[in-house]
Design goal:
Length: about 240
């Protein structure tokens, strides 16, 4: 990977074994990346990006204007998200065991009296992980049957740069922990995206055809994923 600069905007260049170039602007900070075939020269890539500089600037501006949350302290009164819905966080300090409950419009976090911010964050993240692990197996089974592919294994991982990723050689997929905060159809979309990669490694025209076939509303889900409120450490739009 290397970078070029056009109109004051740094653009990261990644060369892959693909047939066509494509460009992405990733939230939350508007990082720009061009993926290009390995045999494309720098001038061809530069002209490709230059031709789209207006669109790039609009995308960066839209991310700058997008609402996002400040870094959490995990104290009462903060907002917390679950499956795309906003809840008010109530924190109860107790000598009893750690616990999280959802009641109406509130999520109650019960923690030890001397707990730190990091400890409270870890408790919430493990809760998200548990919820995802309860949802994912049925979804993977459902879409494996639809797509006609089998993942050898799957994992939940807290990632800052991808909503999902996969190892096509080992047929494994990883799902981002942060998806527990997003609408449920966003989780479907990412799972389908990764499973499709097991039969079509790159983001080719054939890959898009598979997405259209196996999850026709994938563009709607992707748009929703990109437009929901950004968390402080939000992962970028990318699914790999």
């Amino acid at each position: 990977m290397y970078s070029i600069t056009i109109s004051g905007i740094e653009i990261k260049i990644v060369k892959k074994r693909i047939k066509n170039m494509y460009i992405r602007v990733f939230p939350p900070n508007g990082i720009v990346q061009v993926s290009a075939p390995v045999d494309y020269d720098d001038e061809t890539i530069r002209m490709f990006a230059l031709f789209r500089i207006g669109w790039i600037k609009r995308q960066i501006q839209s991310f700058e204007n997008q609402p996002r949350q400040t870094k959490r302290q995990y104290v009462s009164g903060e907002n917390i998200y679950l499956w795309g819905k906003r809840y008010r966080l109530d924190v109860i300090f107790s000598s009893s065991k750690n616990d999280i409950k959802v009641t109406g419009e509130r999520i109650t976090l019960q923690v030890r009296t001397q707990s730190t911010i990091q400890q409270r964050e870890n408790i919430v993240n493990e809760w998200y992980r548990k919820l995802l692990k309860a949802e994912i197996p049925d979804l993977i089974e459902k879409y494996q049957k639809i797509i006609g592919v089998i993942a050898s294994d799957w994992h939940v991982k807290n990632m800052r740069t991808k909503w999902g990723t996969c190892n096509t050689d080992k047929q494994k997929i990883w799902i981002n922990l942060q998806l527990a905060k997003k609408s449920r159809d966003c989780l479907d979309y990412v799972i389908v995206h990764e499973l499709v990669h097991l039969i079509e490694k790159n983001h080719t025209e054939k890959f898009t055809q598979y997405m259209n076939q196996f999850y026709p509303d994938w563009r709607v889900a992707r748009e929703k994923l990109n437009n929901e409120v950004l968390d402080f450490m939000e992962p970028i739009e990318n699914v790999d």
